[in-house]
Amino acid sequence: MLEVGEGHTLYVEEVGNPVGIPVIVLHGGPGGGCSPAMRRFFDPEQYRTILFDQRGCGRSRPHACVTDNTTWHLVRDIEHIRTTLGLDRWIVFGGSWGATLALVYAQAHPSRISWLVLRGVFLATQGELDWFYGGGAGKFWPDLWARFIEPIPAGEREDIIGAYHKRLFSGKRSEEVVHARKWAAWENALASIDNDGAVAESPADYALAFSKLENHYFINKAFLGPDHQILANMDRIAQVPGTIVQGRHDMICPPRSAWDLHQAWPMSELRLVARAGHAVSEPGIASELVRTMDNLARQSSTLRL
């Protein structure tokens, strides 16, 4: 456990080769937490893999806490992990919200990045939030969309994020859990291209952390400035190399964001994966990520580490 200030303590773990290529894994959400499955992309003989639960998530404490929990706190936490471990540079690996955070961190500390590996790109723009919480994705999944908005009165459905915010932070645990599970279920159901819409009910503690933190970040526009802040600041990482892995049928983070990022980033390679959605568990996406990390291990002598 690593203390990072403001009363927050992060769960941090290291696996693999202690003198291997350092790579930090940024999980999604916000609010998702890391898991042992995230280790599978990194050859343990080649990589020193660092995973952590972001503020309020997983095994970090306090649980589901949104106080002093912003994108900029997380960027500072990542730097604190790097300096605590005595690393000069590292590969930053992130998917979905983890890709957002990886880009923001890289733009703040470009000299610390040897390579960026991003999956399921989310640029935290209003258009992306409108797609997923304003009915865009619901046009493809009308039954699940109806289930998601059902607990919200008709007069509040123009602002689903705001309407859920009132209920997720009502102070009544029973009400918060009900709405947290519905919020999490909407996203989980659309993650995989093979999902038929059926999703198991999330445990209460997980649902609360995932949904409250995600909603907290989204109602605050990810604590970024102008709507297209990430794309506007791509000049800061113009010399940082990276790989983007994106499912062509991603219903949560449509491929247009990955395409726009690639166009603004001359040092990037974009790999669009056919017949794949958003989830890192999609076979095509997992294979591309493993291939990417194996290739980087083979060319480690050329990486700035």
Protein model, in words:
With 305 residues, this protein is α/β, with parallel strands linked by helices. It folds into 2 domains: 2-124 and 223-302, Alpha/Beta hydrolase fold, catalytic domain (Rossmann fold, 3-Layer(aba) Sandwich), CATH 3.40.50; 127-221, no CATH class. It contains 10 helices and 9 strands. It has helices at 71-85, 97-108, 126-133, 142-149, 160-168, 173-189, 204-219, 229-232, 256-263, 283-298; strands at 2-5, 8-10, 12-16, 21-26, 47-52, 90-95, 113-119, 242-247, 268-273. Helix 6 crosses helix 7 (204-219). The mean pLDDT is 95.
Instruction: Please tell me the CATH architecture of the largest domain by its name.
Output: 3-Layer(aba) Sandwich
Total of helices? 10
- What integer is the average pLDDT? 95
**N/C terminus separation:** 25 Å
CATH-assigned fold name of the largest domain: Rossmann fold
Shape: globular
Which structural class do you get from the secondary structure elements? alpha/beta
Q: Class of the largest domain in CATH? A: Alpha Beta
Into how many domains do the coordinates divide?
Answer: 2
Tell how many strands the DSSP assignment holds.
Answer: 9
Kindly report the spatial arrangement of strands forming the biggest sheet.
3-5-4-6-7-8-9
Main pleated-sheet profile: 7 strands, mixed
| Helix amount | 25-40%
Q: What would CATH call the homologous superfamily of the largest domain? A: Alpha/Beta hydrolase fold, catalytic domain
Rounded to an integer, what's the Rg over CA atoms? 18 Å
Spans of at least 5 consecutive residues with low confidence:
none
Strand content: 15-25%
Helix and strand sequence:
EEEEEHEHEHHHHHHEHEH
